[in-house]
Design brief:
This protein has 12 helices and 2 strands; from the N terminus they run ααββαααααααααα. It is mostly helical. A two-stranded antiparallel ribbon has the order 1-2. A hairpin with a 4-residue loop joins strand 1 and strand 2 (63-66). The radius of gyration is 24 Å and the shape is globular. The two termini are 41 Å apart.
């Protein structure tokens, strides 16, 4: 009986070649990732340190640092998520739970898929013209965050829709049978059950925000200045709040500028920081996906 099974059969030369090609492609992908990480860290680890992470690049003071760009990146991530997550989650809930399948749903889904395929430089041109020109925001972190919110909105909508559709129908019927209202059902049953999938979409959106540079060059600018803190808690808080209306470049923009100026050591140092952020986000995604596969009690 064992000789008649699939694994007991003798493989033909074509099958062996295909199997070797599949294994080779898999191991090549893994070695390519390890090679990129190793090369970037080999070129950039020498500049990494507390001074590099806590100072700002200044020709006058002779310092090379990414503190301003790192702070701008955190600003951009926070503001973009504050705008995109409520809008994207609300849109997905409307499409999946309230609106009946039809032309309207097809049109909205087609619009989100089209937005996902538009190049980022087009978003940058739109953000510069509309947010910066028409609304008078100019080059600012707020203008860049609004532009990136439009970019990551399709990602959040589609992942939230997929997560809501994977919630078992029995949860809905059981809650409605017990007399729960529609909003109570969504708030207490559907969103907690779909939260791993929603969080996965948010993490993927953060990864795109961190790596984006083209759109931010047109909207947020490339300034590296830190807000001037001091003079009491109120003034420091006002300085941090006023930072969102000022121009600022993220780590990806700073990497582009350092490469353009021929500062390869600093550029590879920034690449190390971005690589660590990317690895951290991927680990989060794996943890979320692992939680998602576990059955609910």
């Amino acid at each position: 009986m064992g000789e008649r099974t699939l694994y007991g059969k003798r493989r033909k030369p074509g099958e062996l070649f295909l199997l070797a090609a599949i294994y080779g492609a898999a191991y090549f992908s893994a070695f390519l990732l390890l090679g990129m990480i190793g090369y970037v860290f080999f070129r950039g680890f020498r500049i990494l340190g507390i001074r590099f992470l806590t100072t700002v690049t200044s020709v006058r003071q002779g310092t090379v640092g990414i503190a301003g760009s790192l702070l701008n990146t955190l600003y951009i991530i926070l503001m973009t998520l504050l705008i995109a997550v409520p809008v994207g989650t609300g849109a997905a809930i409307y499409l999946n739970e309230y609106e009946k399948p039809g032309r309207i749903v097809c049109f909205i889904e087609f619009a989100t898929e089209t937005l996902a395929g538009i190049p980022s430089v087009i978003f940058g041109l739109f953000g510069m013209t509309f947010f910066g020109g028409v609304l008078g925001m100019g080059y600012s972190l707020l203008s860049g965050s609004l532009t990136l919110a439009l970019m990551v909105l399709p990602l959040i909508v589609r992942n939230t829709q997929r997560a809501l559709r994977e919630v078992p129908e029995g949860y809905r019927y059981g809650a409605l049978g017990l007399g729960a209202g529609k909003w109570h059902l969504i708030r207490t049953i559907l969103l907690p059950s779909a939260s791993p999938g929603i969080l996965t979409g948010i993490i993927l959106a953060v990864g795109r925000i961190v790596g984006e540079s083209a759109a931010l060059l047109f909207t947020a600018g490339s300034a590296r200045l830190l807000p001037r803190l001091g003079g009491g808690f109120g003034k420091s808080l006002a300085a941090l709040y006023g930072k969102i209306f000022e121009p600022g470049g993220t780590l990806a923009v700073e990497l582009y500028l350092q490469m353009q100026n021929g500062e390869y050591e600093a550029a590879f140092g920034i690449g190390c920081v971005l690589m660590l952020l990317a690895l951290f986000l991927n680990l989060l995604i794996r943890l979320v996906c692992g939680e998602r596969d576990t059955p609910m009690p």
